[in-house]
Amino acid sequence: MDGHRIALDVMGGDYAPHATLQGAREALEAWPGLRLFLVGDLARIHPEMERHGFTQELLNRAELVHASQTVVMEDKATCILKEKKDSSIRVAAQLVREGRAHGVVSMGHTGAAMVASSLVIGKLEGVDRPALASVLPNMKGGPTVLLDVGANVDCRAEHIAQFAVMGSVYATEVLGLERPRVGILSVGEEDGKGTDVTKDASAMLRQMEIRFEGNAEGRDIWNGNFDVIACDGFVGNVVLKSSEALAEGILNGLRDSFMESAITKFAGLLAKPAMKRFKKKLDYAEYGGAPLLGVKGVSIIGHGRSDAKAVRNAIRAALRAAEHRLHERIQERVALLLPQD
Amino acid sequence: MDGHRIALDVMGGDYAPHATLQGAREALEAWPGLRLFLVGDLARIHPEMERHGFTQELLNRAELVHASQTVVMEDKATCILKEKKDSSIRVAAQLVREGRAHGVVSMGHTGAAMVASSLVIGKLEGVDRPALASVLPNMKGGPTVLLDVGANVDCRAEHIAQFAVMGSVYATEVLGLERPRVGILSVGEEDGKGTDVTKDASAMLRQMEIRFEGNAEGRDIWNGNFDVIACDGFVGNVVLKSSEALAEGILNGLRDSFMESAITKFAGLLAKPAMKRFKKKLDYAEYGGAPLLGVKGVSIIGHGRSDAKAVRNAIRAALRAAEHRLHERIQERVALLLPQD
């Protein structure tokens, strides 16, 4: 196949295979340069294809690849190495390893997708730990990249420095930000604030040709003062899960407060379109999944709750990353972090 | 003076001395058992007293104490040890040290208030690091205590275990929760998830007679599944600042979306009382400041932006903690964490 080739784990996600097939079809319609491998249980996928509007023209750019197994939420992330070698996520990653696909997209088991990407596709030279990056909508209307959110616990300074560099390349190449402002998450703005790890990571980044602006604080994740914020995967994971729950809680609480009386119900009805537009701004689905940075190919891991739109946008992110040869750009920049003799 | 005696740093906070004096007056009116030391620059406080409605009856339960200096935001936390020995926060803490007051309340420089409490009032035996606890409104309508949020970085397992025990005592004695559910913040529910520090802290807590329910995740800070969540002060600080910014951003964004058109403005007008009631639920001022746990007395540190209501509620929290002899209860429980020979 010509064009940019993305392997989609059709079986991954809470609404698979419907949301994944629907998203795949929309993506093929939207981007003529896209080619897809649709990976999964063909006995389940085949009967759905027509229903989801895959015309012959679209099928010319989609190749079905069978995988007999599916990773489920109860599985361990490492199951793909032994018990589930023929799982859809592993087969999709294998296509990237063999050079048949440029990238993989999965909405399934995050841990399994990370293991498949790190071990089957493989890590880039100079990257100790691939990092999962979350692209968050900030209050200035732009994206802020927070990484690692993939639970890389006990990070050393060089890991955090690598996260920062990889995030900076992603923000430039895929999000189109010019000279993204990069920070390290800490407990105060001043250079002296933080742990030995954050201070050493800062020292490394000051030597780099990135726009490093020192310590970022918790509030900077949302206020748009930074484009990229690097942190230990423990902190990133906690902040991300906490933020999802808080935002959901606030929006649900507001919805409930509109149900209080006939008057507020009427008000809610009038305000609905405006509130819907606002919620769209906060919608993680807009940015299409979290890239796993630091592997020898493109890997986008979506939220389990992804709907068709989120799948389509994750495929778009993978396509852009492939077009910009993201992992080669990362490789070049990370090499500059290595001790020079 | 009889009753429970609280020293208020009248000069601390963005709206001092007005918000602090107003809050003090309201507190004196509300709780007849309360006696206050009003600490600060008497040249500034004196002329304000009458304006803020301090009647002779109230003044019988308030004693003015002069302090010639005030800690400002630009100061270092440690300034109270050298350059600003006569600052209002230090003089207030000194009253606790001397046994004249049971507790101190300050809305000023958080770091300075922590240093004054830890070093002037002094740490409890068996407590390595006093912890700042944030009492957050959860989505079930109750409080969740998150600690440490005071930037105690690089915590060891015993520190986090101490935080958990102290938080549990606070939830029982001051918030009135029976057998509070205690967790340690980590990156997954399963016992195996987390760092060596969180796992060791969990092992310590399993030996204790508290209701320890294992790992809490980021979302558990808001969903009401735990009453007390202990974490490293780095993570706690980042989560707290991030949450404040996110909640503010969402509420501002919604307000803006109500300004879009005449229809949405009308809707906003109709919904205003309901939204106001909802915002009140989220209002940190309701719970009245963050207790610093692990010192030999009561110490409540409020948000710099505290208004009179927040000051009054912080005084109420200090009063309750004093009534329940909080620090003695903490001392007893923390002693059980010490290695028994």
UniProtKB/TrEMBL annotation, chains A, B:
<keyword id="KW-0444">Lipid biosynthesis</keyword>
<comment type="similarity">
    <text>Belongs to the PlsX family.</text>
</comment>
<keyword id="KW-1208">Phospholipid metabolism</keyword>
<comment type="function">
    <text>Catalyzes the reversible formation of acyl-phosphate (acyl-PO(4)) from acyl-[acyl-carrier-protein] (acyl-ACP). This enzyme utilizes acyl-ACP as fatty acyl donor, but not acyl-CoA.</text>
</comment>
<dbReference type="GO" id="GO:0016746">
    <property type="term" value="F:acyltransferase activity"/>
</dbReference>
<keyword id="KW-0808">Transferase</keyword>
<keyword id="KW-0012">Acyltransferase</keyword>
<dbReference type="Pfam" id="PF02504">
    <property type="entry name" value="FA_synthesis"/>
</dbReference>
<keyword id="KW-0443">Lipid metabolism</keyword>
<keyword id="KW-0963">Cytoplasm</keyword>
<comment type="pathway">
    <text>Lipid metabolism; phospholipid metabolism.</text>
</comment>
<comment type="subunit">
    <text>Homodimer. Probably interacts with PlsY.</text>
</comment>
<protein>
    <recommendedName>
        <fullName>Phosphate acyltransferase</fullName>
        <ecNumber>2.3.1.274</ecNumber>
    </recommendedName>
</protein>
<dbReference type="InterPro" id="IPR003664">
    <property type="entry name" value="FA_synthesis"/>
</dbReference>
<dbReference type="InterPro" id="IPR012281">
    <property type="entry name" value="Phospholipid_synth_PlsX-like"/>
</dbReference>
<keyword id="KW-0594">Phospholipid biosynthesis</keyword>
